[in-house]
């Protein structure tokens, strides 16, 4: 399968990006090897919305969502509206996946749940604006990532994903979890705490107004950030029971 090569080229293209684009480019045609990579990439996608239907013909620089340098003809940018390709889920041995600044956006495909060797998954956004780059409708696929140690979903829209905590509670190896600005709206109850390896939890900016009792069972917790939420009154007893805690941020509540 040519897929891994095309994906590598694609990522190389995406990392090259962020430079100026040609709105007034000349009749220079695109680089053939890059055109081939884009075609392979397109073939690997299920382009249900037909957004890539313009991806035909020789000059890939005229295709929608593709931007080339008007000096060199190199593809400099793929438009941000390209979703995470589902076939990433077939790279079953993948241990590390970081799509945090790669230019993908949209709904996160449930196929990522096939990556059972994954130890690090970073879909978090580090931009300062408030827009959500990724959306998750249900996080249940993540419950299959049994090797996961690190999960960052900062600014991923989880409002619809009401199963987020049940899914995450299926990850006994998880030690770092970051869910900043995910529109969680609260922390659901749990009947049995499985995430006992968790040492770092960041829930900033989620309109949370109370800390559930079950959190005191996450006994190895060292870092807890719950700033920028809606807590009022005294510090809950639950936090006092976290005997390993060395860092606590309750500010801006
Ligand atoms: C493209 O070429 C034009 C003139 O040929 C130049 O003015 C412009 O800066 C170049 N870059 C972009 C992004 O248009
Ligand atoms: C680009 O097109 C213009 C006319 O549209 C032509 O004069 C010029 O020779 C072309 N340049 C190349 C490199 O083909
Ligand atoms: C993912 O990439 C971003 C941007 O390059 C970086 O800041 C972040 O630390 C990476 N995440 C992991 C888990 O390595
Ligand atoms: C991966 O996951 C999706 C959705 O969860 C599933 O439909 C697909 O058959 C799985 N297998 C492979 C090899 O991608
Ligand atoms: C805890 O994890 C086990 C598997 O490790 C799972 O069977 C069980 O449903 C989980 N409990 C909850 C409350 O999610
Ligand atoms: C928390 O730990 C206590 C003592 O081990 C146990 O009895 C209780 O069921 C646990 N609660 C949850 C929600 O896991």
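^ structure tokens above, recovered residues below v
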């Amino acid at each position: 399968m040519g897929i891994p090569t095309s994906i590598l080229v694609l990522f190389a293209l995406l990392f090259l990006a962020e430079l100026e684009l040609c709105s007034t480019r000349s009749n220079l045609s695109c680089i053939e090897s890059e055109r081939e990579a884009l075609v392979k990439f397109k073939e690997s996608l299920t382009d249900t919305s037909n957004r890539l239907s313009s991806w035909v013909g020789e000059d890939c620089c005229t295709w929608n969502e593709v931007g080339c340098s008007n000096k060199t003809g190199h593809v400099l940018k793929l438009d941000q509206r390209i979703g995470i390709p589902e076939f990433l889920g077939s790279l079953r041995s993948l241990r590390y996946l970081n799509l945090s600044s790669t230019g993908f956006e949209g709904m996160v495909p449930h196929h990522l749940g096939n990556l059972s060797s994954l130890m690090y998954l970073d879909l978090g956004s580090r931009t300062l604006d408030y827009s959500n780059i990724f959306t998750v409708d249900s996080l249940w696929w993540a419950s299959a990532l049994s090797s996961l140690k690190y999960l960052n979903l900062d600014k991923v829209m989880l409002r619809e994903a009401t199963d987020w905590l049940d899914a995450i509670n299926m990850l006994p190896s998880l030690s770092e979890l970051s869910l900043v600005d995910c529109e969680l709206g609260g922390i659901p109850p749990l009947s049995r705490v499985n995430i006992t390896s968790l040492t770092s939890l960041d829930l900033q900016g989620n309109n949370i107004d109370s800390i559930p009792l079950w959190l005191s069972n996450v006994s190895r917790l060292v870092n807890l950030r719950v700033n920028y939420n809606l807590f009022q009154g005294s510090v809950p007893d639950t936090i006092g029971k976290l005997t390993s805690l060395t860092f606590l941020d309750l500010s801006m509540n």
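The first helix runs from residue 3 to 16.
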